[in-house]
Amino acid sequence: MAKLFLVRHGQSQWNLENRFTGWKDVDITELGEEEAQRAGQSLKDEQIDRAFTSKLVRAQHTLNIILDECGNTDIPVIMNEALNERSYGDLEGLNKAETAQNFGAEQVHIWRRSFDIAPPGGESLKDTYDRVIPYFESNIKPQLEQHKNVLIVAHGNSLRALIMYLEHLSPEEILKREIATGEPLTYVFDEQMNAVKLGRLTTHTSNEVIT
């Protein structure tokens, strides 16, 4: 069986400032570095054969810290913009609270939490899904089929798209799913590539079969 580890990057500077980030290349904070170190410690006893990340520095920086903590700095690392965060278009750089005041809280909620409605100049979660999943199927899934353990360090919405795919979630279900920064999620695949979601990597781990 192969394992897939998913980690959202550590807290970024714009996470801290409550700004829409999207494709803007913003690095992680000191807290983000600490979150990445803890993620690396929790993965230290796991074999990791390949790592994938986005073209954005906050994900790459997080991955580098994780691999340093794991002692896996010599494994192949593949970077691709298909794993980038959802683009927020014209909203990128804007404070979320101020944006709600300017455009109305209901409109901003629709942009943030609808599945197929994009903000001005940006992507919907469906758009993000439509670039993440083909990349996963063509580049990452074959590694898992060869029984290689894979680590993906990416972003809240690119990982949300992948989780939707792995767990067969509806648009309504995935929009309710929150992904914490720097906390690894683990999936195990059987020979038929059915996913089993493991609980958080702690001393008390529960299994949840995804059908």
Automatic annotation (TrEMBL):
Known catalytic reactions: (2R)-2-phosphoglycerate = (2R)-3-phosphoglycerate
GO molecular function: phosphoglycerate mutase activity
One Pfam match: His_Phos_1
EC annotation from Swiss-Prot or TrEMBL: 5.4.2.11
UniProt keyword list: Gluconeogenesis, Glycolysis, Isomerase
Site (Transition state stabilizer): 155
Tagged with keyword Transferase: no
Transmembrane domains' residue ranges: none
PROSITE patterns named in the record: PG_MUTASE
Catalytic site positions: 9, 85
SMART domains: PGAM
Binding site for substrate: 8-15, 21-22, 58, 85-88, 96, 112-113, 156-157
UniProt record, GO biological process: gluconeogenesis; glycolytic process
Pathway: Carbohydrate degradation; glycolysis; pyruvate from D-glyceraldehyde 3-phosphate: step 3/5
Known function: Catalyzes the interconversion of 2-phosphoglycerate and 3-phosphoglycerate.
Family: Belongs to the phosphoglycerate mutase family. BPG-dependent PGAM subfamily.
NCBIfam families registered for this protein in UniProt: pgm_1 (TIGR01258)
Name of the molecule in the record: 2,3-bisphosphoglycerate-dependent phosphoglycerate mutase
Native source species: Chryseobacterium oranimense
